[in-house]
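Suppose a classmate hands you a notebook page containing two proteins, each written out with its sequence and a corresponding row of structure tokens. How would you begin to make sense of it? This section walks through that situation. The first entry is reproduced here exactly as it would appear on such a page.
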Amino acid sequence: MNVSKTNAHVRDAAANTASPIKLAVIYLRVSTAKQAKKDNDPDGYSLPAQEEACRRKAEALGAQVVTVFIDKGESAKTADRREFQRMLAFVKRRGDIDYVILDKVDRFARNRRDDANTLFELRSVGTQLVSVKENIDETPAGQLLHAIMAGIAEFYSRNLATEVVKGMAQKAKVGGTPGRAPVGYLNVRRTIDGREVRLVELDPDRAPFVQWAFEAYATGEWSIRGLTAELAAKGLRALPKGDKQPGPLQPSHVARILNKRYYIGKVTFKGVEYDGRHQPLIPEALFNRVQEVLRMHDQTGEKQRVHRHYLKSTVVCDRCGSRLCITQAKGRYMYFFCIGRQQRRTTCDLPYLPAEAVERAVERYYVTVRIPEDLQAAIREDLRAELDRQERGAKPELDYARKRVGELEQERRRLARGVVTGAIPEDLAREEQERIRTERGQAERILATATMVFARIENTLNMALALVGRCDELYRLGGPQVRRLCNRFFLEQVRINVEDDEATVAGAVLKEPWATLLTRDFQDHMAAETSNPGLDLAGRGSRMSALVGPGGLEPPLART
């Protein structure tokens, strides 16, 4: 509506009459976009119905409507509504508006404080609030009615919110999904036995992308940003909202997806977790692997924002200990540089190093990681003996862990029944559920470790030793992904320096068990002859040379 032309028309009409014309503005609001699109509404809540009633009220007051302000799909819980604020500014700027006409008080505000403050602002410029359906004039009785209606509107709003929360909580308790299902699922309506039922089903278009995201991230080869870009390239889009076209997901959204237990069939509401009725999208084992990778990336500080390189988060400056970051110069050449020098946190003078030079230095270093064949054979023999011993000792721990998992599952079921019946408060249920989850996780980890097939463990260890026996060859021939895996498998960090204008490895910190296996003391010990049956490679036992002699700690007694 052209407000300036309307105002001019009103002023001309006022000049040609003996008595001044009253001026009014209309304020309309609907809470949902669905109401805004209705042409009619039997309850009178649609925009056309409200406007028609307000115009009839203006005509009865002998007032000329200057303009109409409309908030579509806005809540009245607060006064922070775009058209509502424009209406207030318009009325105060004009100073000659006699009425603000609305359908009902609850269209105006559902908060008594906002209602009182806004009413004061209108009265300060001589404007009266008029309701079509309530008699809220300036008389004491009208003001009392206004205050009562404002209180009722606030009570209705708060009570409605409370009832909604109660309904959502009850829905979660029986395994339903309160609110909108996440990406990968669809909220659908089905007619079952003549009545409409709301369900959650797998989204055939998006579910495969979510599955792939979990599987890909579990490999440890992807950062959140890289995974987000790949999902966008594959065609994954967010769920549509109204008329807005869905766009690609943001990194924060992808991170929330990877942390959401909903995808393994769980529903969480107000901090309490329930077994959901929806179909799990991924197995729990895959979800747990993803959580481990998330924790690992958080601990290593690996953030592949722009340039992905298999040495990132692995190489550090030998001169000051700062991380080496990578940058691209002149569009194609990659260089490592010391972040401490760039940010002037240190007096480091390590120059920019071509990425290829650093790659060659680390490649040469891998020759020193190789374990000799004779040492491999000795380690393999001792590992076999250790596995036999652990297999014999695992049975009691296995039995206890299995029993404890069963007990905790019974506790969880009793807790869920208590929450559903109302016998257990939700805050206590949250605490108990967290305790059960923690204890069960511990028991299941023990159970998984104890029940692992020892033949498979031995086979894996043999494969690992064979890998270490030719790790330099594997690293040299492998591509970026293989090299990244090798670095994560063997290395905590590699210190880079420059000697004779060439990048070199000044030292490295190996991960266990390779840090121990490659020490000279360990290799000498493995080569030495020993008959100690209690040798514990994890450091829990003693070497033969450290054992106490047959006389014990005290000197032998003299014979009499």
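The notebook's second entry, a different protein, reads as follows.
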Amino acid sequence: MTAGRLTVAQALVRALAAQWTEVAGERRRVFAGVWAIFGHGNVAALGEALYEARAELPTLRAHNEQAMGHAAIAYAKATCRRRMMACTTSIGPGATNLATAAAVAHVNRLPVLLLPGDVFATRRPDPVLQQLEDFGDGLVTANDCLRPLSRYFDRITRPEQLVPAFQRAMQVLTDPAACGPVTLALCQDVQAEACDWPASLFAERVWNPRRTPPAREELARAAAMVRSARQPLVVCGGGVLYSEGAAQLREFCDRHGIPVGETQAGKSALPASHPLNLGAIGVTGTAAANALAGEADVILAVGTRLQDFTTGSASLFRAPNRQIVALNVQLLDAHKHGAVPLLADAREGLRELGAALGAWRVPDAWTRRAQEERSRWLGAAASFTAPVTAGLPSDAQVIGAVQKAARASDILVAAAGGLPGELHKHWQAEQPGGYHLEYGYSCMGYEIAGALGVKLAHPDREVIAMVGDGSYLMLNSEIATSIQLGAKLTIVLLDNGGFGCIERLQHSVGSASFNNLQGSGRGLNFVAHARGLGALASQVSLGELGGALAAAREAERTTVIVIETDPAASTPAGGYWWDVAVPEVSRRPEVQAARERYLAARAERERQ
């Protein structure tokens, strides 16, 4: 049975609109909309199809292809991967601009559907405008740069190919284990070709997350390991939030008395005020979480990739004979660092592991130790976020002021630079999803576009983006998009005169100050720039920041608040070693000394 004659573009759009999910008992479309910047490779066919379906599948216009990718990714993260967005570009620079966003989605395991235009399948007018020509391979196009950045990649060169390609795309986008970016490169002549389509392509389908339970043998082994532990620790990763398992994590820790350290992606799953929440773990971690991580005999890693910032470059978990149980939906992650795998959905895995443990609890001494370390850290951290009246404030002091003005329902968004480390240590998130950091790919420029995606996902919540001047200058165009869409943001722009985070790292490895800070007299007027994009904007001191945030909350459109900060200041307490190789040969005595310190630190960790 066929459903009539439609172009490839029309069929694709109709199929997108037929995909559904259920969120909190409410039926919602899987695709909340399509971000589009039109060009000759997608405006004629796909543009026309989107116009006809604009009531069911809204089209949103951005100002930069990378930014609209970030917004789509942030939307998926903010909805716990239950809903997502698509992005379409023309052939050429529009398509290649998607590469960075695709990498962000790939690393963070987040769904986004990329629909770049491509060359003519017939090759009749080759080379078309913006077409690459490989001298040795006639099949290569610019979109091939998206192959290694996609979980599934396909190029539609015949109309009939759309049917199996779309089915595979949806399977990947909605699979918790395989989730990531999908690219369907659309040859621009094929977009416009018509075909008689099977009715099954347009049949409404409901996609709900697969809740994989743990295998009986793996569950028994994991339970036995945890039960034998005297000093266990939970490492909470983003998978807890994606599985909507925050309540199960809290119940598990309350019942068994196990303390928790948070990754960047997992932060906010357990309220910051919970007595067993030790806060950030790893390179940017708290002294409390890292102290217990160093002594833990069993680490239960839930929904985390266990990357180097979490594990202190594989040196943080250093107790003799320590063991890792990795509860994860993805087999690759479940086997990292020699872990014992517990392959399961985080929510279901925590529920069944808790049931298998029964009434077992850790020794009271370990629970008390965790609470004491937590209390000690909170006292120390308060001294770094406390306001000062003299000199430029640190990032931590600005964070303290923003925290004081924020509400529990607010969503904090940030990404690369020095802010993630300071926020990981200091931000106190009380509600799941209230802390939204892109630190898997540490992508400068994500912050404002990401905040826009979060606001579209949660229009009734206040969204605060904290961004450094370096990231702001890289990608700020979606301020204009936020005004265009009526998606109000509050943007706190911390101006430290360049790339302060890397400047500090540069000094730490003995290098001279070089190519990071802009120096005095740079003449940048961020307030005027933000106003030029349509935002409200002001320059404030630390003492004025609270009032500016209160005014921004009441404003009807996006506000940019600029504050100068000290590029040299960071929180010295907490944290952990990070393996950053120092040059073996250098004429600088400072580098030579840094190399000796590096070798000594590496040798110490290899002995552990």
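A careful reader of the second entry would note: The CA atoms of residues 44 and 192 lie 8 Å apart.
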